[in-house]
Design a protein that fits this description.
The chain is α+β, with helices and mostly antiparallel strands. Helices cover about 55% and strands about 20% of the residues. It is built from 13 helices and 12 strands. The strands form 3 sheets. Strands 2-1-5-4-3 form a 5-stranded antiparallel sheet. Strands 7-9-10-12-11 form a 5-stranded mixed sheet. The chain is rod-shaped. Bound molecules: adenosine-5'-diphosphate. The site of adenosine-5'-diphosphate has 21 residues, from helix 10 and helix 12.
């Protein structure tokens, strides 16, 4: 019995081998201790010790195996936890896990950034602190109704979040549920929409500005064309009226006198109408441009965002290529964007029925003081009857088209001292190009 603990320790530490080894070592010692006291029973003792030693060694082996397994499981668990933590911490969206009563149990790095709480502050606190007071009833944890409703819907919702400093921000919240041994947990994924809403608002504002300018330009273009068209009939009217007046000069009756007066007045009114129209034309033609150095890349990218709204759904593949040496141009930002948006929208519309839909916008440094912008598409190209009158007002092949876009573009580019043109693409499609003065050279000339 004295030797049993030694065997136990050996098998616990080393498993079956050392356990049996300790038993074998114990046998002579037992013989030595028992022999003088009970020589007849010595063999029985030896057998007993052998049996007990063997059992202990086998048990030791199972125990060490179980211990090893436990260690492996723990290692595996730790590895998985680290894995999960790294996923959570590297996620751009905030992730907050909370219990059914709202107690926060996980708060990832993005959540700390978005809400301004540290992990220590957040863990154990109630999840309702992440919502503004007026919205806390949205997740009614006490009634359980609110949150279940959210989980059931499975969809995300737009709600207001509340930062630690009390400010609020728009967020998209998706809530999922999990049950672990009867306890329910909820995971909230939160996407901060501040940036997106800001950029959407900026885009919408730019779009409105463009649309307003486009309307004004279209009206101007129409007025100008009308003026051109009306000038001729008005001159003809004036000439005819004056002719009649001269014919009446030789007639000396009262009625003829009244007719002369009426004809004088008609001629004056016709000339007044012509004057109004001429003024109108001059006003539109002047079309002041407010030129300043603008980054051509930024102009193209912004116009691209405006023109391409909704185009991804239409399967448009767009490629922008910027020549690094073509930096800034002298431009009226809104007007040049109007030109770019018009060219890109025309290209997108032209590719509606094309199998390949590639919109390529390139900037090229044409020579040292001119930047060229090219808008290329993989559409059917220009219809021959359109090509002859391209850039003239009211040239259109579209049922709802006004045919004014390109004539406005031409006017804007010419007011900038540039040129606009068209050529068929080498592999089909249309290529519209326009040039603008590079800003650096113009400025250095002015400086020189
Ligand atoms: P609108 O788009 O209102 O017709 P535009 O002046 O912008 O007016 O365009 C005039 C015409 O030029 C269009 O109707 C179309 O026939 C033709 N066009 C313009 N761009 C393209 C293009 N990328 N591919 C084919 N045709 C084009």
């Amino acid at each position: 019995m004295l030797l049993v603990p030694a065997i136990l320790i050996a098998s616990l530490l080393g498993g079956i081998g050392p356990g049996i080894f300790a038993t074998i070592l114990a046998l002579p010692l037992t013989l030595y201790l028992i022999e003088p006291v009970a020589p007849h029973y010595a063999i029985v003792h030896l057998l007993l010790l052998g049996l007990i030693g063997l059992s202990i060694a086998i048990m030791g082996r199972s125990l060490t195996r179980a211990l090893d397994n436990a260690k492996l499981t723990e290692l595996d668990l730790r590895r998985r936890e680290a894995h999960l933590r790294s996923i959570l911490d590297n996620s751009p969206d905030a992730a907050v896990v909370f219990e059914a009563n709202g107690t926060i149990v996980t708060f990832n790095a993005a959540a700390m950034r978005q809400f301004g709480y540290t992990q220590q502050e957040a863990l154990g606190a109630n999840v309702s602190m992440l919502l503004p007071a007026s919205r806390q009833s949205d997740i009614d944890l006490n009634s359980q109704y609110g949150i279940d409703d959210w989980v059931r819907q499975g969809a995300s919702r737009l709600v207001l979040g509340r930062r630690k400093n009390g400010t609020t921000f728009p967020m998209r919240l998706t809530v999922g549920e999990m049950a672990v041994e009867g306890d329910r947990y909820y995971t909230g994924f939160i996407q901060d929409l501040t940036d997106r809403q800001e950029s959407e608002a900026r885009l919408a504002e730019a779009n409105n500005e463009l649309a307003r300018l486009a309307r004004i330009s279209e009206l101007g273009e129409m007025a100008s064309t009308l003026a051109h068209e009306l000038n001729q009939p008005l001159s003809a009217i004036t000439n005819y009226v004056e002719g009649c007046r001269r014919l009446l000069d030789g007639v000396d009756t009262r009625i003829a006198g009244r007719m002369r007066n009426a004809l004088d007045e008609s001629a004056r009114q016709a000339m007044r109408a012509a004057d109004i129209i001429r003024h109108q034309r001059e006003f539109v033609a002047r079309g002041e441009t407010d030129k300043r150095p603008e980054d051509i890349r930024q102009l193209v990218e912004e116009a691209g965002a405006l023109a391409l709204i909704g185009s991804r759904q239409r399967g448009i593949n767009r490629v922008f290529e910027f020549a690094p040496e073509a930096g800034s141009v002298m431009a009226d930002r809104v007007q040049i964007q109007q030109v770019l948006v018009n060219l890109m929208r025309n290209a997108i519309e032209a590719m509606r029925d094309s199998e390949r839909r590639l919109l390529l916008v390139r900037t090229i440094l044409a020579d040292k003081d001119r930047v060229m912008v090219e808008v290329r598409d993989s559409g059917p190209g220009l219809a021959p009857e359109i090509e002859e009158k391209l850039f003239q007002p009211f040239t259109t092949s579209k049922p709802g088209g006004m045919g004014i876009g390109l004539s406005i573009a031409k006017r804007i580019i010419e007011a900038h001292g540039g040129e606009i043109g068209f050529r068929p693409g080498e592999n089909g499609g249309a290529v519209f190009h326009f040039s603008l003065a590079a800003a650096d050279t113009e400025e250095s000339e002015r400086a020189g």
